Amino acid sequence: MKKKVIGIDIGGTKILGGIVEEDGTLLGIKQVDTQAEKGREFILSNLFKLIDDLIAEAGKVDAIGVGSAGKIDCEKGIVVYATDNLPGWMGLALKDVLEDRYKVEVAVDNDVNAAVLGEMWLGAGRSYRNIMMMTIGTGVGGAIVIDGKLIRGSHWSAGEIGHMILIPRGRQCNCGRQGCLEQYVSGTALYKRYNEISNSLKIKNAKQLFELYKHGDEIARKVIDDFVELLSISIMSIRNILDPEVFIIGGGIIESKAMFGAAKLPFA
Ligand SMILES: [Zn+2]
């Protein structure tokens, strides 16, 4: 019988979970809202609920793999650092917590590191050995693969492109600095920028912004044009450092790629 594992992706907005066979066949997928603003215990209880539901569906599993936003010590399975996108998450021994509860082997890594490994196994990264992956969702994450090997850095923070300073003395970031990339090109930044320009609290997520864009809203068009420009600048800078064969872009925003993909690329 083929081995079965559960794969989990913990983001600031939702937690996604899948049951996967050892050959990569996806048997089922579920998601819950992270409800991150309610803090660590709440996020954990949502995570447990999701895993319980997946196990109820899959039966016994052989292992659980978790990708979480933040800097993760993947040897110990500890969250070394997390911003307030996941309040209270920093310091959590997530591997131990899950192994105690589920009595199976658990691996924990940064969410984008986990994503790029998946892309190299079965996705967009299959034929490449030098990859830059970016995820654009609640925040912005990155993962670097050179010569087929994931680069983790000396403090588990290689590829943390969301906190590259893009605009000197720019918007306050929840990492403590100002002007970070994440404050300009994340899903959160996009909808907040719309509300800022329109001086309203009209929209609550990036999905609504893309809906407005689709219906010809001028402010939405400006916000998305600016987003594409800043994303292009970021990609150019990263290219100059890493010279990868391919950029893979993922994250919640990518569901709307048909819209911003059509915007003019200033540096193409
Ligand atoms: Zn930052």
Tell me what you see in this structure:
This protein is α/β, with parallel strands linked by helices and 268 residues long. The chain has two domains: 4-114, ATPase, nucleotide binding domain (Nucleotidyltransferase, domain 5, 2-Layer Sandwich); 127-260, ATPase, nucleotide binding domain (Nucleotidyltransferase, domain 5). 35% of the residues lie in helices and 23% in strands. The chain has eight helices and eleven strands. It has helices at 40-58, 94-102, 111-122, 182-185, 187-197, 206-214, 218-242, 257-260; strands at 4-10, 14-21, 26-33, 63-68, 71-73, 78-81, 105-110, 131-136, 140-146, 149-150, 246-250. Strands 3-2-1-4-7 form a five-stranded mixed beta sheet. It has a four-stranded mixed beta sheet with strand order 10-9-8-11, sandwiched between helices. Strands 5-6 form a two-stranded antiparallel sheet. It is globular and about 55 Å long. The mean pLDDT is 93. The structure holds zinc ion. Zinc ion (ZN) is lined by residues 163, 173, 175, 177, 180, 182.
The global form is globular
CATH architecture of the largest domain: 2-Layer Sandwich
Structural class: alpha/beta
Strand order of the largest sheet: 3-2-1-4-7
Helix content: 25-40%
Distance between the first and last residues' Cα? 49 Å
In CATH terms, the superfamily of the largest domain is ATPase, nucleotide binding domain
CATH names the topology of the largest domain as Nucleotidyltransferase, domain 5
Mean pLDDT: 93
> Over the alpha carbons, how many angstroms does the gyration radius reach?
19 Å
The biggest beta sheet is recorded as: 5 strands, mixed
Contiguous helical run count: 8
CATH class of the largest domain: Alpha Beta
Portion of residues in beta strands equals: 15-25%
Present as ligands are: zinc ion
Number of strands: 11
Flag low-confidence runs: none
